[in-house]
């Protein structure tokens, strides 16, 4: 049975799972969830994803949610095909990978998500952005990217010399903040700019951007 | 011996100490003087470039981000003390799901609430009450989902405790101490689970200081 991704093609974290499937050459079927009609908040949906969020996957009856967990599961299940070592196996390399994943979780995502919420999600709901909060989020993200600049001055990717899931996790919300919303945070940070250019040029990501 | 560079009351430092206790891993807490801003000194940022605690030095191997340290130590000593990360592919998938739930559906809300209500006042700052109200409202829906999950299984990843459950303890405990225990206690399955994990001897050993 082909892997089923339940979600909406426009949802950033649905696109993340699609991206990792493509990196690992895993065929998938996107099963549309009518998020604009609130399908993900229905009791029927919450049987599979109790938080009422997309995506979740159905891998031959095995249901899994939380996009980063799904990506790890796919990367490990199909370790021997597609882009190698998206989750490194050597203990120390794996630890540095986990460090990089945690960096994305704590030092990137909360700010990128917050900016997206203020500028896009609120707009969809007819609400005005909280300008003070937005300003804080932008300043915090810039301060964190100054540290990324240091890290990426020493190595090509966040976990070392090769690409891993930790880098890919930045794609959906990084694209929203730097490309769709046009926040210029890369010009003054050449190492971050170099890394961002690399990861966004990957054929898998370009394919997902065209059609998840 | 693992050197844990941190602050005895720091939530993230105590997560690492907790895992060391669960796994019977000896460690030495090296006190970082946060009040004096030691974590922003070049000597510190050479090892932890974000200027945050904790980081570890494991016989010369430097690692930061408490969740990464917790995973590294759990995997380094798989057969010592409590088994915290499953290795079967599906069980591991469910563990990763639970670990992600903790980060994005719990700590993402609880940490800023305790930052406003507990840590800011300690620095003489006023909490942003509007933000706290907003965060608490969002957290309630998440806690309902937890109660549904924990009505079907004992722990977040299944019927055995994992690192995903334990990761809730540091921020969750400060949250309860700040007067929000009712958020857990009003939901029967969540309450059962919280009582279970918060009474673990390893947590009681580090709860008041790493």
Please name the defining characteristics of this protein:
heterodimer; A: 212 residues; alpha+beta; 4-stranded mixed β-sheet; 10 helices; 4 strands; 8% strand; B: 210 residues; Glutaredoxin; Glutathione S-transferase Yfyf (Class Pi), Chain A, domain 2; globular
How would you describe the overall organization of this protein?
The complex is a heterodimer of chains A (212) and B (210). By secondary structure, chain A is α+β, with helices and mostly antiparallel strands. Helix content of chain A is 54%, strand content 8%. Chain A has 10 helices and 4 strands; from the N terminus they run βαβαββαααααααα. Chain A has helices at residues 12-23, 43-46, 67-77, 91-107, 109-124, 131-151, 165-168, 171-180, 190-200, 203-210; strands at 3-7, 28-32, 56-59, 62-65. In chain A, a hairpin with a 2-residue loop joins strand 3 (56-59) and strand 4 (62-65). In chain A, helix 1 (12-23) runs parallel beside helix 3, helix 5 (109-124) runs antiparallel to helix 6 (131-151) and helix 5 packs across helix 8. The radius of gyration of chain A is 17 Å and the shape is globular. Chain B is globular, with a radius of gyration of 17 Å. Chain B has a 4-stranded mixed β-sheet with strand order 2-1-3-4, covered by helices on one side. Chain B has 210 residues and is of the alpha+beta class. Chain B has 2 domains: 2-76, 3-Layer(aba) Sandwich (Glutaredoxin), CATH 3.40.30; 89-206, Glutathione S-transferase Yfyf (Class Pi), Chain A, domain 2, CATH 1.20.1050. Helix content of chain B is 57%, strand content 9%. The mean pLDDT of chain B is 97. The longest helix of chain B is centred in the middle third of the chain and has 34 residues, at 89-122. Chain B contains 10 helices and 4 strands; from the N terminus they run βαβαββαααααααα. Chain A binds chain B through residues 46, 50-52, 62, 64-69, 72-73, 76-77, 91-92, 94-96, 98-99, 101-103, 105-107, 110, 133, 144, 147, 150-151, and chain B through 49-50, 61, 63-68, 71-72, 75-76, 89-90, 92-94, 96-97, 99-101, 103-105, 108, 131, 141-142, 145, 148-149.
């Amino acid at each position: 049975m082909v892997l089923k991704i339940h979600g909406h093609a426009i949802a950033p974290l649905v696109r993340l799972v699609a991206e990792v499937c493509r990196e690992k050459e895993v065929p998938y079927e996107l099963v549309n969830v009518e998020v604009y009609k609130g399908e993900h908040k229905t009791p029927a949906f919450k049987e599979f994803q109790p938080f009422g969020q997309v995506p979740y996957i159905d891998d031959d009856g095995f249901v899994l949610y939380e996009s980063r967990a799904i990506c790890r599961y796919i990367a490990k299940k199909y370790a021997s095909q597609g882009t190698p070592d998206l989750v490194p196996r050597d203990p120390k390399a794996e630890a540095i990978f986990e460090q990089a994943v945690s960096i994305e979780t704590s030092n990137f995502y909360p700010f990128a998500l917050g900016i997206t919420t203020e500028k896009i999600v609120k707009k969809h709901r007819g609400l005005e952005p909280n300008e003070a909060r937005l300003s804080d989020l932008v300043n915090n993200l810039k301060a964190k990217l100054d540290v990324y600049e240091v890290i990426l001055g020493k190595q090509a990717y966040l976990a070392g010399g090769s690409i891993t899931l930790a880098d890919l996790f930045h794609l959906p919300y990084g694209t929203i903040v730097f490309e769709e919303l046009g926040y210029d945070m890369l010009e003054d940070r050449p190492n971050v700019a170099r890394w961002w250019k690399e990861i966004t040029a990957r054929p898998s990501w370009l394919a997902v951007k065209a059609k998840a | 011996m693992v050197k844990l560079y941190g602050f005895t009351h720091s939530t993230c430092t105590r997560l690492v100490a907790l895992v060391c206790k669960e796994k019977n891993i000896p460690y030495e807490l090296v006190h970082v003087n946060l009040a004096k801003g030691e974590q922003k000194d070049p000597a510190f940022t050479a090892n932890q470039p974000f200027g945050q605690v904790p980081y570890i030095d494991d016989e010369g191997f430097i690692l930061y981000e408490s969740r990464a340290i917790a995973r590294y130590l759990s995997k380094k000593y798989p057969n010592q003390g409590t088994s915290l990360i499953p290795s079967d592919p599906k069980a591991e998938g469910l563990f990763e799901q639970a670990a992600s739930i903790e980060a994005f559906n719990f700590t993402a809300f609880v940490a800023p609430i305790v930052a406003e209500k507990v840590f800011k006042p300690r620095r003489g700052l006023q909490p942003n009450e509007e933000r706290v109200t907003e965060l608490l409202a969002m957290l309630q829906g998440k806690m309902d989902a937890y109660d549904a999950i924990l009505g079907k299984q004992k722990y977040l990843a299944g019927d055995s405790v994992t690192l995903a459950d334990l990761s809730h303890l540091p921020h969750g405990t400060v949250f309860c101490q700040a007067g929000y225990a009712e958020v857990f206690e009003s939901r029967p399955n969540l309450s059962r689970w919280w009582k279970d994990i918060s009474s673990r001897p390893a947590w009681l050993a580090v709860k008041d200081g790493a």
